[in-house]
Protein 1
Amino acid sequence: MQRMTALFSAALLTAGLMSVTAQAQETAASGTEQPQAAAQAQNFSDDQLQQFADASKEIAVISQDYTQRLQEAEGEEAQLEVRKEANEKMVQAVENSGLKVDTFNAIGQAIQQDPELMQRVQEMAKADAAAEGQGS
């Protein structure tokens, strides 16, 4: 359960990073701590950061979709089911990017603590989006 909350929190962070409105209050309420992730923060390769940016874009879309579904879900059990489904899709997006969930979460936490790292990831995401726009 803690892993699910950590991923969902990281997803909401990245959704915010990508300028998507997300409902962080409910998922942040249970809170998670991974102090050792911050210690590893500076050891991420450009490839890992690019994978994080790619996964973040996918997660932002998933998060936006499931935030709406969560708001529409009636009752605690229905909301839990929506969260579970969203989490599974987010895990898949992370794994499809080539990262492990723990690495994705560690990068997400490092970004919260390091504005320069956040800027690097944002620039990677923007450059990737620009390249996609020219590729058509």
Protein 2
Amino acid sequence: MFLGIDLGTSGVKALLMDEAQRIVGSASASLTVSRPHHGWSEQDPADWIRATQEAIDGLKSAHPAELAAVKGIGLSGQMHGATLIDVADQVLRPCILWNDTRSAEQAARLDADPRFRALTGNIVFPGFTAPKLVWVKENEPDLFAKVAKVLLPKDYLRLWLTGEHISEMSDSAGTSWLDTGKRAWSDDLLAATDLSRAQMPALVEGTQAGGQLKADLAARWGMGASVVVAGGAGDNAASACGMGTVAEGQAFVSLGTSGVLFAANDRYLPNPESAVHAFCHALPGTWHQMGVILSATDALNWLSGVTGTPAAGLTAALGETLKAPGGVTFLPYLSGERTPHNDAAIRGALIGLSHESDPAALTQAVLEGVAFAIRDSLEALKSAGTTLDAVTAIGGGSRSHYWLKAIATALGLPVALPADGDFGAAFGAARLGLVAATGADPRQVFTAPATAQTILPDPALAEAFEEAYGRYRALYPAIRPLSH
């Protein structure tokens, strides 16, 4: 048996899989985000441990014999979080999360140093880890002086599970400290933020062993000795492992809290000017590109909160037939935006409101706004040298067929929907645990699921969507002066 643990922003999911990759069971526990100031987003790492214990204890209650047979554990996690620990491995402050924008000024200063883009292949975004440490140095200097290790969220879970300070390439590529082409920490970039390699975890590939489960936790869950903990992956790379998106030309669109257009590459293809992320994949010798928007289902959840209607109810009210874009345009920049704007200060907008703008019109605008933001990412990937023929949809938002029809038409690409099953980050993490524990060939393990349905662009609405995308594109430069 193999266990995948995915540490998300809103919860922890634990998934149990057998050696034939059949899912035996899964359990989840919720997390909350603290926003003490405008633009801040934090979590207490102790809550990650509580939620992980709760999820795995749930698996033990439902599947005790299967959990006891676990030989490998894989980790997946929300990326970019700055988890700061001292020499005694004690947490120094709440973790600063991926969608925290307080370090926009520090990120701009680092990005102005040409070494960062040259070595990392990426813009230094405010959500990345390095500018957060510069913010801590400038605003919490006494605390910065105590930092013995900087860990990404899933690697703090690894520390609890194994006692080891270890990370892997895909997650570390989102810190702005990794030489992404060489798959190694850059001493120059660390020094530019007054840190050293000694304060970084050791690096392994995602498919390699990254520690061994501590005896007390193995005993708690009824497991035997020598349970391998894999290097694992950042959440998007883990999802790619779950989806079998590991070869050149394969791609998926993820509609989670944030939105991601992910393309696998067999070579390193950086193009930071496009605001595309060029990261290491979880497999050795592979990379990937991502266009990232910060509010996907988060945008729909915002509308749900405003209207008092569950998100599923909002989308169901639109029916199944795709409509031409209406008169209302939504810009989904609720937390700023990454691709293609790299703008932490920009904020969302509803344009074109009228007396006739009922909840259905607003829902349609939100779904279209996210679809157009993903189209922005597609255009950015094209400029970075990647051509796509189709994408596969994953994430909670993919349950809305109306949304998928809008995305297919906005992108001009077929959108495949996997057959029933769980192929997300926790499943990808379990696959990584299998490879690390058994030495299996990753290419044989990371296969793609069967396709249940392919949603094609609606040719009758292609022109209307193209015109609406043009209006959408014109609005960012129009509202930018009002947000800065």
Protein 3
Amino acid sequence: MRASDLLVPYPTVTLATPAIEAARMLADADLPGLVVVDDHGAPFAILPGTQVLRLAVPIYCQDDPNLTRLIDEAAADVFIRELGDRTVRELLPPQPHELPVVSPTATALEIAALMARTRSPLVAVVDGAYEGVVTLHGLLDRVVPA
């Protein structure tokens, strides 16, 4: 089984996409993450949904989870507003990681190893141009025995 057999179309965002719009895409389509493309449409990064939350959740709540219990429910329900006018570029980690990208001929094991190594639920498939992704769910559906 090759990446071309597991490939599915998948939405992309750009570095300039507003972070709140990226969060809305994640929520509306129940996606585990997004493919960030550069100005030429080539994959630049994979943005897991947890990275969006990292920027939305106040630092003091991340540093001390006990503080989250002190915030009333009404305020806690609107934490996503912390994204404000930020862009997808600001959601990306400062240090570049290995980009989870494969060719259409990559095997299921190659894809699984890359997902495990990069901790990414998505692997972009590129054959000159971005073609789509292999999702963790899609990969497991095909390789785990019934």
Protein 4
Amino acid sequence: MTNSQQLKPETGADSFFATDIRVGRVLSVEEFPEARKPAYKIKVDFGPAGVLQTSAQVTNYPAEDLKDRLVVGVINLGRKRIAGFTSEFLILGSYDAEGAVHLLSPEPQASPGDIVG
């Protein structure tokens, strides 16, 4: 097992259920040249939870392929400043053996704001 595949320590269900994970629809994608690693600035509509922005290292996707896509995000981790930009949520994906991100995708009938649990 490589380091990226090693299991993390066991945690209680309370930690998991404290996260607010929701479906969102990508509204816009902009280049983020100020970031240390290649990234986009992404705005996502989470329905009743509002529109939030994030910095995401998902440049293996063309920006036009991300627009209008349904994504999954954790929206209650707090804000983080990245190269002068405020990131408000964490977009979820998996990493392959080469380190490329593959975004998690809900079923097409999901709607912005739907709770993931």
